[in-house]
Specification:
Length: about 280
Amino acid sequence: MKEYHILSLSGGKDSTALAFFIKENMPDIFKKTELVFCDTEHELPEIYDYLNKVEVFLGKPITRIKPYVSFDQIHSIYGFLPHPACRWCTVEMKTKPFRKHIYDKFNAQGEGCVYLYIGIRADEAHRVKTATSTDNYINERFPFVDNNIGRSDVIKMLEDVGVGLPEFYNWKTRSGCYFCFYQSKMDWINLREQHPDLFKKAMGYEFYDCEKIKKGSFSWIQNLPLKELIKPENIEKIKMNYEKKQERLKNKKTPEKLINMYGDYLVDEDEECENTCLFCHL
Ligand code: SF4
């Protein structure tokens, strides 16, 4: 029977660790698995650098899948910025090109099936149901869930193989586009410090003339355009709240279960699993 195996890398830790896990524990599968990255062309430079490094460590090329049309063109058609309730960016720039790639590689009219490997961890197994496709020729596989692999295992795995974590984890919690609306206010402030040019580009997408517009989203953060966010009094408040939150996380009674550290950056696991996109942030 015809089989096609595929793993989509986001540039984040979980999907990357899954590639190394499959290489180590399922070598026959690894040989026939295509590694792909759906590039919105608006990812962080750290992601592109990391994927180049991952390719070397895995000894296998990563296919870069590009969108058919640019974010700017799609933006002009929709007329508003993507937001959590209307994630047209993921649909148009990742899901559709990815499905077409699978379809082209594997003739869906024929017999057989596609095995899609997804890096959902055992500690977030409840997300499995949202990752199950309606296409009956696609079989999702969740090796981390099946093998009880959690967050600290993933981090250790990446350290053990020598590739480590992507550098952006020093200042933000998730992979994805530099303008992703899922990022926290603190991530936005860090983006401005780390990549002022990208922050400026993100600002350029915001639209203030809301008079003519009846629906949709025109700032990346609801009701807080970036030009407001960067007012000194707002930056001060956001940094203060962030520090307080970090303190709270440090003082949680069961830190080994509830929090983890990327460098100096404390992350609330519950929050990490909420409000994220499986395609972009694994
Ligand atoms: S990372 Fe964020 S902005 Fe980029 S495609 Fe995914 S959800 Fe959309």
